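Predict structure. Chain length: 122.
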Amino acid sequence: MARKPMKKKEKLYSIVERLRAHPKQSSRNKQSYNFSDPTALRALRIHRHLRALEQEILNDGNKRRIGIKLDTKSEQIVLTIANDEIHCSRVAYLSEKEFSLLRKNRKVANVLRKCPAWKDVA
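Prediction complete.
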């Protein structure tokens, strides 16, 4: 029986999930993915972006403020990480699927739950 072909978005996020499932893989193991495919390259960029956001969220909590809001126009989740020590902020626009992948890390989910607008987004 033939398998039903995956939609492009489903394929993209299934690759991201596999990359995030094994974050400590060496580059040799990542060679199993065909990164000449534009979908796989996009998945790798999303994986790296989410990993960088995780690191920034989990950094020293006293010097940063995290805000979450839902942008009704674009239907994206806006994640703002402000660092009071060096007076800068990072703004990330995430799809619902990317936000759910970010929350799969328990430590990140615990930090995000403390945000005032958590209930509006979750």
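Summary: The chain has a mean pLDDT of 81.
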